[in-house]
Design goal:
Number of domains: 3
Structural class: mainly beta
Oligomer: single chain
Strand content: 35-45%
Largest sheet: 12 strands, mixed
Shape: globular
Number of helices: 5
């Protein structure tokens, strides 16, 4: 058995978070363009906060803050009587509000993890300022309870917390600490708690947690406790079933939060900590870390990490360097190939599991080869990806290689831009003359780690599936006016982030191209870029097979046509669940293959019974240059879409 070294486990668990105030905050502030309002303190700062105002008429969430709409029953007249319970029930996934007028009300989940109600009381006629009244609630509140590594939200078949697993509680005013660190730091920092004897404690930074399932109450042990997040180990004697969790801090106990305890719900550790993208893997012999510039050779045995295999009583609170198998995963698939597993079970550290697996000799190569585990009941884990090959990985389908991925992920921030065109085809593979083409135009700023953790890329020959609670992008960038040279384009006002455009029906088809002129702004310099549609068009020849899909059998997709040397994407998307999360999957195959089988475990992760499935031919991404853009590309698609019923 291989055991994770201390520095690595600390890096996986420890994350810094801002301080949340410990009493309700209320007030009124007038914002000019630029400065940020901190709803946790009521202060205005040029650099930190939750909301900022743009003189172009947009109110934008800053950092990790998100915005929710409120029902029409909340009005200016009853604004002061709004409750924390009301705010906890809303779905927070917006990043900006356009043209807010006096009387508008919305809710904010702050960077400090608290919940605030905001009323627009005035806006200057020239849009130079906006005045906001706010109420921020800072009693302990819980917004999520999820596996520390998979981060799968409730409502998905592969969600839930297993006994003996490491899980996190997110919310606000949960403890006294501002951040967590594994190196010595001055007050008010707190260090990750050691699992050396006497082991993990039942309280930390003034916080305690209680879990009750089927009449049994247990007390999880702490790795750390901050104002916005707690990391704990669920006791191995916790019974399975529906239960509740409460946090007590500063003499107040949170509203009970509903949880589901299951026998096993493993989550793989991702390198950037968001539950998807590059997985954490090491060489089984020398513990060297694999990454985009140090790919895993086929045939190598690697150690993967995570949590949720199941109960392990000897390691609930204390490090115990003794092997203990917990064989809850029946299969580990690497690029859809069933792989040999030599060990799955305890790593030695409380809540942390390891899996030793051999990469198949015939595994596909690439920077984003998918890996997923499936238990005996057919329920999958989260999906991660691994770089497989020799040295620097290569991924022609995505237009990225390991050197570029490593360079961008190492930056503090990454500015991205993309312009794509998707031409809709009818059932015969012809352009639909009465349907406009979709033209997403996106300019975003990510953190370097956020860019490296993007969940929407997979190497050819595999599939990934993701639960997406909100956008991973941090800030939408102003692009200025966007026009088309020599084509008829239906324009909409230019706004930060994603600009939805549509090409008039029939203006572009297979082999056609469209050149875009981006005027630029203070954030994005001007440039031109051309998108080319693949030719000949792709024809999905067994669309009827997708109308009713049996989850346990998967779906074999067949096609003809498509441009030589390109790829076919098979994707599915579901609408948002009540939690605000939604589900997507993506498979990629070379167009020359003529067919691809979407495996059963992809559909097994779907939380509901309907999904929209698209089969599309995609060109190789073509990069463009703009002085403020670190990575920009154009890409053309044509495809067919059907509504699928799952059984």
């Amino acid at each position: 058995m291989r055991r994770l070294r201390n520095a690595t486990i600390i890096a996986l668990i420890a994350t810094a978070f801002p301080l949340a105030a410990q009493m309700n905050v209320a007030g009124t502030q007038t914002l000019a363009s630029g400065p940020k309002l901190n709803l946790d303190t009521g202060a205005v700062s040029p650099s930190t906060g939750d909301l900022y105002w743009l003189s172009s008429g947009e109110l934008v969430a800053f950092g990790n803050a998100t915005i929710a709409s409120v029902p029409s029953s909340v009005t200016a007249a009853n604004f002061s009587s709004i409750t924390q319970a009301q705010l906890l029930a809303y779905t927070y996934n917006q990043t900006m509000i356009y043209g807010p007028a006096a009387g508008n009300i919305f809710a904010v989940h702050t960077n400090g993890g608290n919940y605030a109600a905001v009323l627009v009381t005035a806006e200057a006629p020239d849009q130079s300022t906006i005045t906001l009244q706010f109420i921020t609630f800072t009693a302990p509140s819980i917004s999520q309870v999820i596996n520390n590594y998979s981060l799968v939200p409730p409502g998905f078949p592969n969600s839930g917390i297993a006994p003996g697993s490491l899980f996190i509680v997110k919310g606000g005013s949960l403890a006294s600490a501002t951040s967590v660190s594994y190196t010595p730091c001055a007050s008010p920092c707190t260090q990750l708690i050691s699992s050396a004897a006497p082991g993990l404690p039942a309280t930390s930074n003034g916080a305690s947690v209680s879990v009750t399932v089927n009449g049994t109450t247990v007390t999880p042990a702490f790795y750390y406790a901050t104002a916005t997040q707690l990391a704990l180990v669920m006791p191995s004697n916790t019974p399975a079933g529906a239960g509740t969790l409460t946090v007590t801090y500063n003499g107040q106990t949170s509203v009970p939060f509903n949880i589901q305890v299951v026998a096993n719900a493993f989550g793989f550790a991702a390198y950037h900590g968001n539950g998807s993208g590059l997985g954490l893997s090491t060489n089984a012999s020398n513990y060297a870390l694999y990454n985009y510039t140090n790919s895993i050779p086929p045939g190598a045995t690697v150690v993967l990490y995570g949590s949720g295999l199941g109960a392990d009583p000897a390691r609930d609170t204390v490090y115990t360097p003794v092997a203990f198998s917990v064989n809850s995963l029946a299969h580990i698939y690497v690029g859809e190939i069933d792989s040999s597993v030599f060990y799955q079970g305890a790593s030695g550290y409380p809540g942390l599991n390891e899996i030793d697996v051999t990469i198949p000799a015939n595994a596909p190569s690439g920077c984003h080869v998918p890996v997923v585990g499936v238990n005996a009941a057919g329920v999958p884990t989260n999906f991660i990806t691994l770089p497989i090959g020799t040295g620097v990985c290569e991924d022609p389908a995505s237009g990225l290689d390991g050197a570029m991925l490593s360079s961008l992920a190492a930056q503090t921030t990454v500015n991205t831009g993309s312009i794509t065109i998707t031409v809709p085809l009818n059932s015969a593979g012809n352009v639909q003359s009465n349907i406009v083409s979709s033209v997403p135009v996106s300019f975003y700023t990510y953190t370097g780690g956020g860019f490296g953790a993007q969940p929407g890329i997979v190497s050819s020959g595999g599939c990934i599936a993701n639960s997406i609670p909100y956008s991973t992008a941090t800030i939408g960038l102003e692009s200025g006016n966007i026009s088309v040279i020599g084509q008829n384009l239906i324009l909409v006002p230019s706004i930060p982030g994603t600009d939805p455009f549509a090409l008039s029906a029939g203006t572009v088809g297979p082999g056609g191209s469209v050149t875009f002129q981006v005027a630029g702004s203070s954030q994005v310099s001007g440039f031109t870029a051309t998108v080319t549609i693949p030719t000949p068009s792709l024809n999905w020849t067994n669309q009827n097979a997708a109308s009713t899909i049996t989850r346990s059998q998967g779906l074999d997709v067949t096609w003809t046509g498509g441009q030589t040397g390109t790829y076919v994407s098979i994707s599915g998307l579901q609408g948002a669940l009540p939690t605000g999360a939604n589900y997507s999957f993506l498979c990629v195959a070379p167009v020359s293959a003529g067919h691809f089988s979407v495996p059963p475990w992809v559909f097994a992760a779907l939380p509901v019974n309907t999904v929209s499935i698209q089969v599309a031919n995609q060109t190789i991404p073509v990069t463009f240059s703009a002085s403020e853009i670190d990575y920009g590309y154009t890409q053309g698609f044509d495809g067919q879409t059907v509504a699928a019923s799952l059984q």
